[in-house]
Amino acid sequence: MENNFLSLIKTRRSVRAYKSEFVPSEALDAVLEAGTYAPTGGGHQSPTIIAITDPKYRKEIAKLNAEVMGSNTDPYYGAPVVILVLADGSASTFVEDGSCVLENMMLAAHALGLGTVWVHREREIFDSESGKALLREWKLPETLRGVGAIALGYPAQGSRPTAARKQNYIVRI
């Protein structure tokens, strides 16, 4: 492996504060494309990637996510873009498939100088009637299940140092 790829993996950090600065469409397109090259079970490509830049839907998805948490804060930390990853719920590997998509996009974003954080509760959102209504509005199948999301944007502050790796993280047998 090239040293720059290992460095990319080692330096990516979750970002929980974003500038309001717009993410250029070329950068967003590159991040989204990286997600499409993630491995999927049997090569079936079960995930669907939804990039939300429209302020109306950005606000709506944040509200639905916050309701699952029992909160009224922005679960996406003010990021200008929210990328949802849903997948065909009938695929036995839909969670794994979607997780690989999220990881690819997070690493691509970091390579482009953008920040991300993985956000949960999309499963609860899209299993609910409100989530199903959004899927209908977006003309997407209601069989899609939420896997996760990433908040995407320019970090508002520097990243924390890398935490030490735990003892016995790797066991060789």
From TrEMBL:
UniProt cross-references to Pfam families, sorted A to Z: Nitroreductase
Keyword Cell wall biogenesis/degradation attributed: no
Domain Nitroreductase: 9-154
Named cofactor requirement(s): FMN
Keyword line: Flavoprotein, FMN, Oxidoreductase
InterPro entries on file: Nitroreductase (IPR029479), Nitroreductase-like (IPR000415)
UniProt similarity note: Belongs to the nitroreductase family.
Name of the protein this chain belongs to: Nitroreductase
Organism in which the protein naturally occurs: Anaerostipes amylophilus
